[in-house]
Amino acid sequence: MPEAPFDAPFADLLQQVVDRHAIASRLQRTTALAEEVLADAMRIGDGVRRALRRGLAGRPDENDCTALARLAHRLEDATDAALQEDAARALLAAAAAGRPVEAAELALTVFAGLVRPEAPPEHVYLARTVRRRARSGETLVHPETLAQEMADSGRDGVSPASGPPEAEADTVLPEPIALSPSFAGCGSEVALRRATADLRDALLEDSASGDLLLFTDRVAGPFTAAVAAQADDEWWAASAVGWTAYRAGLVEALARLGIPVDAAE
Fold first, then answer.
1. Quick check: is 183 in a domain?
2. Which residues pair with 72 in a beta bridge?
3. Domain, as residue range, for 73
4. What is d(CA 208, CA 178) in angstroms, rounded to the nearest whole number?
5. Which of 16, 72, 121, 167 is the most buried (most CB within 10 A)?
6. Is residue 234 part of a domain?
7. CA distances from 107 to 52, 92, 115, 181 (A)
8. Do the domain assignments include residue 104?
9. Nearest one of 233, 257, 258 to 246, comparing CA atoms
10. Nearest alpha-carbon partner for 10 in 55, 39, 56, 46
């Protein structure tokens, strides 16, 4: 069946609504609107699907696209307005300036789904990537390289995944540093481990993921290393370098750089 003239624009506009919903649903000011708009968009999509199942031609049509475009613009305008508010601007500035306690207070007023953790753990974990994508496929980071990267993190601190926030960015909210409350939950065989005694007033919990978030330009050490005693991943079973050998090389490299490895991990 040939593609109808409005199929592609309709799909694109529906994706725009979904993408804008992902942002708007994270903001206190636009959470309710985000759910309302998404429900309206889904009803339009359901109407189109029902018409197609009945064999009716001409759907989606120009009216369907116009309705979706209106919903997408409604969410975009509301999100832009929320990002221009004083609290959002102050949050961005506090995070960029490395004032995490102030930023945490502001983040609670700006973001939805964040709460103060009831019982912050004694330590948090920052996963380190052992396997990385390359043109040839997934490659293994040499233990010496990974150990040096971890030493560099101890010296320079760790920034958000996309880099430090920029105070002059008018329409971008700061990206928090995501910390795992447990080694088992960090998603890697290797992690930086840090005590939370001086971070507790700045930590927020993402109620959706369970991660602990820190809104700041970087989190400094001291760090120790958490290295899994075993790796049950099938990738390691198929690798030419098994986990036992890799772990031994990493622990040795970390020791040469003076980075303690937690015996409990």
1. yes
2. none
3. 7-83
4. 13
5. 72
6. yes
7. 45, 9, 10, 19
8. no
9. 233
10. 46
The two beta strands, 137-140 and 131-134, are antiparallel
Give residue for tokens 């990974």. 146
Given 3-state DSSP classes, what are the helix, strand and coil percentages for the chain, each rounded to the nearest 5? 45, 15, 40
| Shared-domain flag, residues 60 and 135 | no
Q: How many domains does the chain have?
A: 2
pLDDT band at 6 (very low <50, low <70, confident <90, very high): confident
28 and 122 assigned to the same domain: no
The helix (run of H) or strand (run of E) holding residue 169 is: none
Strand partners, 213: 178, 204
Phi, psi at residue 125, to the nearest 5°?
A: -130, 140
Q: What is the H or E stretch that residue 24 is in?
A: helix 7-24
User: Quick one: pLDDT at residue 167?
Assistant: 47
Residues 185, 66 share a domain: no
Distance CA 206, CA 197 (A): 19
- 165 and 73 in a common domain: no
Q: Are strands 177-179 and 212-214 parallel, antiparallel or unpaired?
A: antiparallel
Same domain for 44 and 147? no
Q: What is the pLDDT of residue 254?
A: 95
pLDDT score recorded for residue 164: 55
Cα 46 to Cα 18: distance, rounded to the nearest angstrom: 15
Look up residue 197 and give its two tokens: 């005694």
Measured CA to CA, the distance from residue 160 to residue 154 in angstroms comes to 15
pLDDT for 256 equals 95
Cis peptide upstream of residue 174 (ω within 30 degrees of 0): no
Q: How far apart are CA 64 and CA 233, in angstroms?
A: 47
Q: In this structure, is residue 167 part of a structural domain?
A: yes
Q: Is 123 strand, coil or helix?
A: strand
Q: Which residues of 24-63 are buried (b: 16+ CB within 10 A; e: fewer)?
A: bbbbbbbeebbeebbebbeebbeebeebeeeeeeebbeee
Task: Give the distance, in angstroms, between the CA of residue 72 and the centroid of all CA atoms in the same chain.
Answer: 23
